[in-house]
Amino acid sequence: MPQWAEYSTGERIKILRGERTQDELAHLAGLSPVRVRRAEQDVQLTLPTLLALSDALSADVSVILGQQAPRRGLGHEDRQMLRRLSHTVHDTAAGILQQDDEAPTVAELRAAVDRCWDLYWDGRYAEAGAVAAPLVRSAAARLHDQPDGARAGAHGLLADAYRVAAYVSNLLGQRDLAYTAIGHARSESAAAADDLRQALVDSGRAWIYLRDARLPDALRLAEKAAADIEPRFSRATVEQLTVYGSHVNFAAVVASRMGDKERSADLLSQSHAAGARMGGEHRAHGTLFGPVSATTQAVGINVALGKAGQALDLAGSVTPDDEAELSQAAQRRYALDRAMAQADTRRWDDALDTLEEALTASPEWARHQALPQVIVDKVGRASTARLRRVSTLIGARETAPTGFATATSRTAL
C-alpha cells in the first residue's frame, strides 16, 4: 500500500470521496461535476476549488495535498462533527455566541454533561462529539447570563463541557483541538476555584501528552493530579475514591509505557487499595473506577511491561459478572489487552477469537482503535479463516501493512 503522500492529489480526493459519486461531491462543494472530474484527473486545482473540496470533504487542505495523512477510522460524518466542534470551542473561548444560543438551567446542563460522558464511555465517540458542540455553546450561554457573584458553578460546567470536547478530539486524533479544549477547561476550572475539577483537567492533559508521545510530561502531570486530590481513606467518600483511583490508575499506565516497572507497581498498589475501599464500580465527574477497573487496567499494564503470562493470570481472576460492571468501552479495551497477551504467548487462535468478539460487539468503537491491527500483525501470516474474518473487520490486510493505515499507538482511554 502506498504512503498517503505517494498518491496523486486526484487519487487522494477520490479516496476521501469514498462511496459518494462525483456528482454528489460536486453538489456538496458547489462545483460543477466537470470540475470535480478534472480534479480527480489531476488537472491543476485553483485555490477556490481546493477550498471548496476541503469544506465538502471535511478534510484539511494539507490532507488533500498529501502533506499529512487522514486519521484512520474517520469518515465524512466524523470529520464534519470535528469541524463543528472546533468552531464551537474556538468561538466560545473568544466570547462569540450565536444569537439563538439558549441558556439552559444548571440542572439541565449537568444532565447534558452526564449524557456526553455516558456516550463516551459506551464507545460512541462521534455521537459524544456531536452532543458536546451544543453543550459547549449552552454552557457558555449559561455563564454569560449568570449574575456577578454567582458564576462559579457556571464556570465549572463550562470546564466540564470543554473537557468532554478535549477527550473526544484526543481519541479521534485531533491533537491541536484537544490541546485547545483542555486549555480552556483549565481556565474555566480555575475560575470556578474547584480543586477537584482542576485535577480532572490536569489528568486529561496528561492523557493528551501520552497520546502525543510526551511520556515524561504525562507521568509528571498524572502523578501531580493524583497527589493533589489524594483523600484520607478513613473518611473518603466514594466520589473522592472514584476520581483519585482513576487518576492513580492512569499514572500507572503512563509509567508502564515508560517501562518503569517499580513505579508502575507502586501506583498499581495505590490503585488496588482505593478500589478495595470502594467495593464496586462507580462513576463520578466523567471518570469510572472500582476494584474491577483496577484489575483490568493492571492486565494492560502487565502487557505493556512484557509480562504477558502475568497479565493472563490476572485476567483469569476477572469473572463475567465482574466485566459486566465495566463500561462498554472499558470491556472492549480489556478484551484487546487480553488478546494482545494471548498473541504475545503465541496463543494465536485464542487471540483472534477474543479480538473478533470485541470487534463484532462494538464496531463503532473498533473503528478508532489501533491495537487490533497490532495484534493481527503479531499473529502474522497464519492462513486461517479466523484471521481473514478479523482482518476484514478492521479493514486491514492479513499481513503487516506499510502504508498510512499502519497502527502506531495502542493507547486508548
From TrEMBL:
It comes from the Bacteria. Residues 21-64 form the HTH cro/C1-type domain. PROSITE patterns: HTH_CROC1 (PS50943). One of its GO terms (molecular function) is DNA binding. SUPFAM superfamilies: lambda repressor-like DNA-binding domains (SSF47413). CDD domains: HTH_XRE (cd00093). SMART domains: HTH_XRE. This is Helix-turn-helix transcriptional regulator.
